[in-house]
Amino acid sequence: MPEFRSFRFAAVLALRGALGAIGAVAVLGVAAPSALAAAAAPASAAAPPVQPASAAGAEPTPQQRQLRRIRELRAQRPGDGLLVYYEALTLAAMGPAEPVVAALRQLEGRRLGLVPAKTAGFDAVWDDPGFQAVRRRLMDDEPVTPTAPVLRRLHDPRLIPEGIAYDARRRVHYVGSIAQRKIVAVDARGRVRDFSRASDRLEAVLGLAIDAPRDRLCAVSTNGFEAAAVQQRRNAVVCWSLRAGTGRTGERLTARNPERNPERIEAPPDALQLNDLAFARDGTLYVTDSAAGSLWMLPPGARHLLPVGAAGSLRGANGVAVAPDGIVYVTLSTGIARVQPHTGQVMRLPQPDDVVTGGIDGLYWHDGDLLGVQNVSNPGRVVRILLADDGQRIRGLTVLQSHHHPAFVEPTTGVLVGDALHVIANSHVAAYQPDGTIREPHALQGTAIVAVPVRTASGG
Q1: Under a CB-based contact definition with an 8 Å cutoff, are residues 323 and 365 in contact?
Q2: Domains identified in the chain and CATH numbers
Q3: 245: closest CA among 260, 267, 226, 262?
Q4: CB contact at 8 A, 315 and 333
Q5: CA–CA dist 92, 299 (Å, integer)
Q6: pLDDT digits (tens, 9 = 90+) for 186-199
Q7: Does 252 score more than 60 pLDDT?
Q8: What digits encode the pLDDT tens for the residues 199-240?
Q9: What span, in angstroms and rounded, lies between the C-alpha atoms of 377 and 330?
Q10: What is the pLDDT of residues 21-55, one digit of tens each?
Q11: Span 96-139, pLDDT tens digits
């Protein structure tokens, strides 16, 4: 993936992992190009030519290799509009705006919700009039949904939040901070207090999840996307008991019990950058690794993370959700994978050409469907992904909250509370730099938590 001047978790991790040096064909679970030599050619025929190497006999650049991989995939899935978007994204890092505009024009009128965002990697062509014109037309293709209410507004603009969880028993939201390496608790009256403390030794906090039957909160702590990981990579799952007397409940946020420490599960050395997590009904915890393209599991009572399936079988892995029957769903760069946890078998869910499920960050199971927060292929929206055939196929998609929401600035994840998904609306993750600094902190706003209704007019 091209080297981004700004940092964005979903775009950088999912795309770099899925379309990087390992190769997208094996990664995304599609047939090898040699097996599809007779695949339809219109997609590649209409595309701008790949730029030649800088010198005769020189090795292709990473962008050139990636562009070829994307076009191989387009030959196999000629109706997949998201691959066109990713081609435009790659071209944006390679040179002039004209090829980018030509690629994006192929998406006009398809109403796929594919709208370039500056922080996703279109910086170099952002001011080009032709690019802005096609972007406006793509924005107009997206229907405007009713504006979901802002439930909470946190005042600190420098949290850079990514994960959120909700303790229904105590009516407390927990929000993880990337920049400040901590977790804050927000009670039912909107009061905010630090939940974690310095002795918990947290790195950047990503995914959060509540294990309600066992009354505990777990979080991903990682420096895997930071410059510091070059010297020492640190990944862990950290869990706190929320039971009375531990000094960590949302009702007694200022109380501290010096004898009570969180449980810390250090990840194996081959874990590169843990990201999101979700609990199964039996208490098994599943954790994605975006940089390694892998899935890990922590069975109840275990002290070590165990791999699920082959390493690299889920390139671009990000969000994770667990169905009541124990099947695990993981977001990829161009879609969603269904994982059988006992065998590690991975299947990319087939979907219609008018459905785009790639580029999803947070993923959640709800009444036989999946809910997703999508933030790579557009400025941010919340969608309901309609499943069929016992969860083995995607039959459609409904936009629950379009990118027009005034509070949306790179929404990341959410948590189901009743019939609403409480979403971190403005993460500002693109402002967070690999050296741990925040770019233009004066321009950031306090975190907004938006309550997006998950029921459609038809009741789904």
Answers
A1: yes
A2: 31-141 (no CATH), 150-453 (2.120.10.30)
A3: 260
A4: yes
A5: 43
A6: 999 999 999 999 99
A7: no
A8: 999 999 999 999 999 999 999 999 999 999 999 999 999 999
A9: 17
A10: 323 322 222 222 222 222 222 333 344 454 544 45
A11: 999 999 999 999 999 999 999 887 889 999 999 999 999 999 99
Cβ atoms within 10 Å of 194's Cβ, excluding its own: 14
Tokens of 406: 């005034």
Q: Could you give the CA distance from residue 446 to residue 458 in angstroms, rounded to a whole number?
A: 35
Torsion of Cα atoms, 429 then 432 then 438 then 443, to 10°: -30
- Give burial (CB, 10 Å; 0-12/13-18/19+) of 269: exposed
Structure tokens at 129: 């009039």
Tally the C-alpha atoms within 13 A of residue 439's C-alpha that lie toward its C-beta.
Answer: 13
Which residue type, as a one-letter code, is found at position 325?
D
**Taking the alpha carbons of 435, 163, 82, 389 in that order, is the dihedral positive or negative?**
positive
